[in-house]
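To close the chapter, one final illustration. This time we ask the reader to focus less on the individual chains and more on the assembly as a whole: which components sit near each other, and how the overall shape emerges from the parts.
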Amino acid sequence: MSRFLTFPRGGVHPGDMKDLSKDSPIKTLETPAELIISMSQHLGAPAVCQKAKGDRVRKGELIATAASFISANIHSPVSGTITDIRPVTLANSVCCDAVFIKPEPAEDDPTFDTKGYASLSGEELLGIIKDQGLVGLGGATFPVNVKLTVPIGKPVDFLVLNGVECEPYLTADYRLMLEHPRAILDGAMIISKIVNPGSIIIGIEANKMDCVAVLEDEIRKAGYPIKVAPLKMKYPQGDEKQLLKAVTGREIPSGKLPIDIGSIVCNVGTVNAIQQAVAFGKPLFERVVTVTGNCVRNPGNFLAPIGTKIRDLIEAAGGLVEEPDKLISGGPMMGFSFWDLDTPITKGTSGILALKYKGRQQRQTHCLHCGKCVAACPIGLEPTMMYNLITSGDYAGAMAHDLMDCKECGSCSFSCPAQLPLVQTFRLGKKMGRAKK
Amino acid sequence: MIKVSSSPHVHSRQNTQSIMLFVILALCPSAIWGVFVFGLRALVVLAISIASSVAAEYALNLISKEKTLWDLTAVLTGLLIGMNMSPAVPLGIPVLASVFAIAVVKWTFGGVGCNWMNPALGGRVFVFFSFSSAMSRFVLPSALGNADAVSSATTLSFAKTALSSGEFIGQNSLQILQTQLYPVSRFAESLSNSTGINAYTIDAFFGLQGGCIGEVSALLLILGGLFLIATKVITWHIPVVYAASYALLNWVFGGLPYGTGLFSGLVIDPLLRGGFLLGAIFMATDYVTTPVTRKGQVIFACGCGLFTFILRSFGSLAEGVSLAIIIMNIVTPTIDRYVRPKKFGYVKPVKGGAK
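The assembled structure is written out below.
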């Protein structure tokens, strides 16, 4: 069907595996016994903690402030007492200070009632977004206020809402679009007031046609100038480069940002959070997390406070049926594998996967020179060439082959018949290349 | 035990072993047909080729301390060598070809993935030039009547020999076959009468012609190719472009050696004869020795078509596919160096700096 758009170069088709959790409505997680709030929840500098051990905090209270321009505030998801402040290791292996909170629900907890915001100016809205600690919830956790601060003289032709969710297994955005379409659309209009875009488009992949119908219906009711663009299923369409190419036909030049081609991309989860922050004064202290995988008894989607231990989430999903081979935070293509169930979730945790690999694991062989990685690379790089250069120690040569443009989407490793650790090697090559420069 | 590793954490179902297995499966119909029409001796040739290829791989595994037997590449090389042998070949020749392919062509460069020439083709060409007369002795399929009357020729070499006598100027290869009474099956004759398609073309399509064990049936080779495309082992680019470029050249210039002028060459018929389809579908698509980019693959395939045409039309030998592919194997690293994919978001550097 020709009305489905997509990006032309590269990409792969991993099985989407969303059936495990897609029919399970978002459940609010019961407040866990302990929360571990990391100071590094976002891209950029870790936030600066404003509390001390033993302090009482209220639900929604600011506990850490943005350390620099690219950083974000952090708020407490519960009322309670700070029992400890000490370093923890996150799922992405980052080690940073974290605030341990013992929740003690209080009678006078804030309820976050509706606020009028129609009269607020773009700048005031941007201020709210900054204060409430909003970051991109798609995974990159880039501070939203920075993204929405459009440099003077750069027009915004497109505001693209990212409802692609191309990572297999994850259904958090899917459920959000299905259950809270109006909140997402209102959120889009709030952003629209800030950046004043030429048009607003929601990109959704073809495995979520029910979301397309729901959103189109809601757009008609609300009378908003928003379009829904159904996209062909292809990984990594959820990456802003591929999404913009698919939706607007424009390519972000190497090393540039979406704004350089007159576009802003926001994940639908982020847009929902923006609406919550502006319309209810609710800071970003909770998010939807998909808990799934073939080792999870009842895969599902949970609205969980930031800082929930992964153990609590897995227990809420009925626990594990068998010991997994891998625990993954995020999707299976770009997520991080971790080992400790007491690791807390952060603002960027879109899913928790517990996977058991079926069948025999294949051994690594020599590169066959088959070119499947070249065909799969959405950026048009030559993974096989870069791999050979890096493994033979020629980091400068790999950089000359545009190693730095690799965004580690994993399409090459996914399709490599020789099972070469391509992405891992590129990460090494980038580090070594930067160090040598 | 919980493992921690770099992303991605899922993998496509394809791996080296499954790919080799699929190629072997795709070759099987044609190989079985070869055994069916040429008799059990063909099976012996195939078995010996595979056995000696695997044995050579095993021996080199012992030396190199690598374990590559189970990736099935040696089985595939052996099978391809066997399929490239005449059913009447002396049994020492496939052994020599297999050992040469594995030991010299493949392992002197470091084993699977490191060789620059297709091992099976290297082995075949080596024995072809070493034992030319034994390698050019063919038998006819038993279905073409008196099998004892060794024609000692494939249709290609038959036409070539006739042409070099100088008596048939002005006739194309099919007319030469006809006037020289190359045997034709009764089935093809009757089908030809009802459809008007040349009976020799029909025989070549279904697999009743003299030739190597694995190359006679165009139909089964094409089916094997479609299977490989459907299972995403290969893409259509190399076989289709190879066939198209060869057919085009043949149509435009193919008449010249026959003295019939430009634009008088046969288009489809030459694709069905000799080792063309076996080469185009199974040898020219060998991963290791072909370019990695689509554009590079198209250039590679055009080159194969060009050299096949030159070698077949103007060379002293009837067959040119093996050499054409080997020539392009040599060019492959150069193609890979210069033909690079267009990078996403590539902006032409603007003269005079900032844009």
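Chain A touches chain B through 60 residues (CB under 8 Å). The first strand of chain A starts at residue 26 and ends at 28. With these observations in hand, you are ready for the problems at the end of the chapter.
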